[in-house]
Amino acid sequence: MADNHKTGAQALRSARWFAPDDLRAFGHRSRAMQMGYAPEEWKGRPVIAILNTWSDAQPCHMHFKSRVDDVKRGVLMAGGFPMELPALSLSESLLKPTTMLYRNLLAMDAEELLRGHPVDGVVLMGGCDKTTPALLLGATSMNLPAIYLPAGPMLRGNWKGKTLGSGSDAWKYWDERRAGRISDKDWVGVEAGIARSYGTCMTMGTASTMTAIAESIGMTLSGASSIPAADSGHIRMASECGRRIVEMVWEDLTPRKIQTRQAFENAIAVAMAMGCSTNAIIHLIAQARRAGQDIGLDDFEKASRKVPVIANVRPSGDKYLMEDFYYAGGLPGLMGRIRNHLHLDCLTVTGRTLGENIAGAEVYNDDVIRSVENPIYAEGALAVLKGNLAPDGCVIKPSACEPRFLKHTGTALVFDDYPSMKKATDDPNLDVTADHVLILRNAGPQGGPGMPEWGMLPIPAKLVKQGVRDMVRLSDARMSGTSYGACILHVSPESYIGGPLALVKNGDKITLDVAARSINLDVGEAELKKRRAEWKQPETRYARGYGWMFTRHIKQANEGCDFDFLETSFGAPVGEPSIF
Ligand code: FES
Asked: Whose CA is nearest to atom 1 of ligand 1?
């Protein structure tokens, strides 16, 4: 054992299960031997949980089935004892009605898997959108030494020699098809070429945003989040995670020592420079609250005003994808360029500071990772708007919408649910212009429920045929990080619980001014009071089960959408399980 070891073998948490000379420990040891392990393989060694979110329904994590063996190799090499624990796999593409309904379920799964098993540290294997925040939420609450292994982005898409980006090109070519500009055969070609390998979406969607955030908070090895899933460097990184977590157990390097307020400020600055997904806000607020840090919308707003978007990656950028970002120097290269906005003395899972991790980081392509003097967008990626329509805030991604909508007054066209909105927008005779404000309500945390990614409402078919590709859309929903357009999201409080969005009627005027960070409904207070008195809450969608519990305990978007009873401030800390 090296001198810097703070934890001795007798003090290992797993020793509570395996070391005592009693009947229960006899059972634990004999069952380990049932699996073919000799005592020499676990005695005095850190037991490392590997939370693996592989499943047959999870295309982004296909490689985790074999990658877990690389982690185990690293754990064994460093003198640990690996224990793979399958965790709920949240596939963004296949799980319905929305993965956000289940983020907190995976967070609970992770926390309780760690609490109930004889483990001393954990490697968290995730990447597809909600898996990253969910695993980190659970691990933060449990606070055992933890390292995050990002799945890595998939390879660039390709169709007829053209590069395709996850999500973004699906929306784009779908509109082309609706406009009759590409054939059915072309559409099938796009379908076959847009996801060419295992790994997460390779645009700067929620997956790449959240794994970059995990790295900038200090929860991954340096550079880990940018490595493409299919690159052999990803295998080596997996093995290194296994080696490093064993050392972290001996060093007692826990998430709360890493996840300070400054670490979250670093993550927010990096998110802005990356041109991040709007979903980052919700997940980061939830994670900060788990870590006991008071982070809110104002922190995003402050960073948004000073950190430019320098990652020229779609959808905020116009050309490149995550594979290009990796070749250009990856996240260490980007962090090196915004080092003046970072707290370089923050500790990371490497045992070194962020500043030490990125010392000497280089950028190899100045068009992919721009300099701060030549950004792709001078202000941050996100803007938080407030006003009488969203007293607790809402969010827009100015870097991904047509500039003419940054200051706009339009007439409201309101829909109370997705099916009626879809039917209307497909109607060639819909009474709508490109200046209208399309509104979808009852799509928030309780109303969805689960706040589905419906916020990029489809442009009405009639306007698509006229060549319109963007218009103002407003909802209490989220949108995919790969989406784009003048979409105002996360309106809080949500309409389902009677937020002002519930009071809007067709024909009302709505004014948004991104520079002033405002959004307002141009209707007098007396009329709003009358409408409020007449408003009735829609019926709940779930009368039993998980959905029922979700609706009762989910918090609003500006508070991170955690369950109230999972927040660190709720009740008293949970102790270690009894072993009798
Ligand atoms: Fe898994 Fe996009 S669908 S990351």
From this structure: 128
